[in-house]
Input
Amino acid sequence: MADLRFGFRLDHVPGFVADAVLGDTIFEVLSGLRDGRRLRAALVDMARAADAEWVKHVVLVLDRPRITVTRLREEWNGARSVFRPDLFDRLAIAVRDEAGWDGIPSAPDSSQQAVIEQILNHEGPWTVTHARGSANASQDILRLLVHQWLLGKGPATIKWLMKTSGYSYPTVAKGVDQLGFYLKRDRGGVELKQFPRDEWIRLLAVSDAARQTVRFTDRSGQPRSPVSLMRRLRQLRRTDIAVGGIWGAAHYHPDLDLVGNPRLDLSLHSKKANADYGFVQRLDPGLEQTTSRGEAATLVIHLVRRRESLFEPSDEGSPWADPVECLLDLHEARLEAQARDFLRSFTATRAAALTRGQGQ
Amino acid sequence: MRLVAPAVVLGEIARAVPADCRENIIIIGSLAAGYHFFGSDPAMMVRTKDADCLLSPRSRALSAGVDITERLFQERWRFRADERWRQPGNASTPDAALPAVRLNPPNTADWFIELLAVPASRADEGPQWTRIETAFGHFGLRSFRFLSLAAFEPIATPLGIHVARPDLMALANLLEHPAVWPETMSGVVGDREIKRSNKDLGRVLAIARLTIGKNEDALLDWPAHWMSALRRLFPEDWRELASRCGHGLRELLAGPDDLDEARHTCEFGLLALQAPTAEQLRLAGLRLLQDAIDPLEQLAREA
Output
């Protein structure tokens, strides 16, 4: 039996990453679908995904949709008239909600249900849309676009923004619209024209709340160094906790000045309403959470709530937080000089890349 | 108890004992730990009244005990009488009633030397007394089962005598107290009556804290060294010993009154000049459990 593979990149659809693939079947998951526009966009993506010789089935899994099956059938029948029949015949919708299973053209059988359960368990109930406000959504979209801009990734598609953030189409579209002044639309995606300073400053002002930052201070009288904490973190082999702050920044730009860094910044990727900080005691039993900004923090943890962490894997045992998180960490730690140097290093890299591109 | 500089006391002992006995002396206890952590800095002091000298190896311990005792008496060191032992023993003194070799230096009563011996057998569970006959009377050399750990790979000093490794002294104390026993010490510490277990386990916490102060990750190296010593010295039952080495400490950390007694002994001992709070001492204990004791117990389970 073929293995279930998650996050499968489809070579025949540039930029498309399927949620899961099993043999000749592609699965795409949408949670909490609430509008026909998003469904129609998904059906288009599915048809494109189906257009390869090896693909026999493309299943759109709707987890607890907010629209009725009757409405789904209307959209389905509408799509039938415009899609190529050979592609449309490969498509199916599976619906799972509190009432059980349903589907179009038919509900999945028990073996398909088992596979879909496995996929849904892997995807997790990512409910950012409902758990967080629209202000947070805008900031999350901003962070994603800055991420793409810093790393010179080019335009981000709405689909990528949805998949990475976990937000629905309307939320992402609204977040993108709010950044309109800074954006250029290209190759089916959006991209920042420049670093969005005003929006960034606004983000910094609410960064603590937006990232649900938690601080830990030493109570032993013998504070452990960031290096020791990092060494112990790596022994835990946790892929959901990334090293950020100045150590993360130095990973991206090794010339960064590390002098005078008394704390470790970590990013914790968590979908739980109440994040689990139990691992802190494994790093050091001498650490205790503090809400006082007057106390020196030895360890600072920021939550990453979006669906994809964007952590960069590392052979050393712990991934690196993405550069946007690192930049926010530097500002939060009042390491303004290092933050400026860090941002400039990306700007310089981008400028050099553009110059090379124009010269060719 | 007075504040003494470990390096000064060790120098005085080394000068007084016969040269050919120095290599048989291993300083243990708070003076050894103080010398290890504070080095030759005479400004760094510990509060103690006894300089415990462990005689090793066993084959030389008794003759060295005689030679050292006689030399010190000749150098005008004085028998330290107390309520239990008013004078040296003689041929008619029962073994169980023999006084320990406890001698004050000629110029001070602030501290005294006590001679101990490594145990004759790995199986000796409780304290053992071995008679030595000297020109100045009969004495007993005390041995405890886990003193052999303090004699394992001791650290040589420029003075010619050795000091025990702090991690192995800690292990010996951990093994000696698999629970917080109710027995109290014969004298008070400061003005308080203290359980013997709390004093010895408090020493473990003090050593852990000083070790962390010197190198924040040094405790991580302890389990491997502990296992090496246990396997060598207790080849038949090292697993059982390793698996219970943290029981007493966990009990101490869970009991606020016991922990406060431990803190009190640290304040009146090894940490006299940098006394921690009870909470700081508890956190040192948690770090010790996490870095050294839990891994040793795990190694024992997996072996």
Summary: The mean pLDDT of chain B is 92. Chain B has two domains: 2-149, 165-302. The radius of gyration of chain B is 19 Å. The CA atoms of residues 127 and 144 of chain B lie 5 Å apart.
